[in-house]
């Protein structure tokens, strides 16, 4: 143990049973560390929207190693679309179909399914592992000291732990309890995001399509992404749009009919409109190196490039590794160094992801003469010079590669 004098009820308390909190608990369980999850919502909650549909191979690998079979269960219940297509003002400028799903170790490059299913499978794994989840009892206060953490919940329960992990999402109580604050920016444009139910008979071809200046929806950018059972339609509002008006049922049905097809008009399952935040907490660990922030408790990125849940799962994996090492350290300084290291490495990863998602956003929102001219010239050149079309296809998702985080396209 790390030299603490406190009698801990459990080595690690995790706040939040979202995908990142559950992954943290599973990754710790796989390393022999016991945890308790405290969740604010009731167990029978309804989580809206398809959200993190693009699950990257690094995420699948982490889930598979944390709970054997879990990564494969996501793959078996997801889809792998094999074609990327881009159009510019009604004309195709790029198309590529991949002969195989790529990936390694028996897991493909990605899979695509609604986040609620991913969470359902994670919860099954959590229950199979015997990890306790206390529903409907959110964390209210977190007090850390050199010796450990005291967590109090809404119902007045108190938990003493060696360490606590804040996986309690964007409005994290744990983040504010350790005095860490978000800073960053917000997208200028709003985006309308809708989930559409697919037909079992004669479904559309499963391909990811980006359409620049779509002529049927007054020149707005449109992204169509398939996932198991449905489609994500993502429409970038113009500066002059009223997003409230555009996200009304009738308007969305019209936008969907014009982009996905008339027969999808009445298949809208969920709609939302967003301005995307690009923010990072100023620190991901508390002053005593006893509390760690993971996932959206620590950072929010625009979704282009699918860095949300994927980078949160990478946080969870790193947190589990560092916590396990800290808990088995004989020297307190060594334990502290592990947690400090988590704070540094994942802050750097978050900064990388924020920059990458920011690059995608800047590109999508860019309406300077130079940016517009570059897109226009690339579209002109695309029929004769494939890299120009490929650039148009790639740019809306930001750069590939980067820190040991999961970068993908959705
Ligand atoms: C439209 C949209 C599209 C997206 N697309 C993608 C994508 O394609 N790929 C991708 O990777 N990501 C995507 N994301 C992001 C993804 O949904 C989030 O990154 C992910 O849900 C974050 O997981 P989390 O566990 O950190 O937080 P959450 O999912 O928010 O979970 C936090 C949990 O903590 C609980 N909680 C809150 N307060 C407390 C408290 N005080 N005590 C205890 N529990 C508490 C909450 O009830 C919740 O269960 C998308 C998001 C949106 C909105």
From TrEMBL:
Could you tell me which residue ranges the FAD-binding domain spans? 9-352
**Organism domain of life:** Archaea
Q: Does the keyword NAD apply?
A: yes
Q: Does the keyword Ligase apply?
A: no
Please report a single Pfam family linked to this protein: FAD_binding_3
* GO function terms (MF aspect): FAD binding; monooxygenase activity
InterPro entries registered for this protein in UniProt: FAD-bd (IPR002938), FAD/NAD-bd_sf (IPR036188), PheA/TfdB_FAD_monoxygenase (IPR050631)
Q: Which UniProt keywords apply?
A: Monooxygenase, NAD, Oxidoreductase
Q: Which SUPFAM superfamilies match?
A: FAD/NAD(P)-binding domain
Q: What is this protein called?
A: Monooxygenase
Origin organism of this chain? Answer: Halobacterium bonnevillei
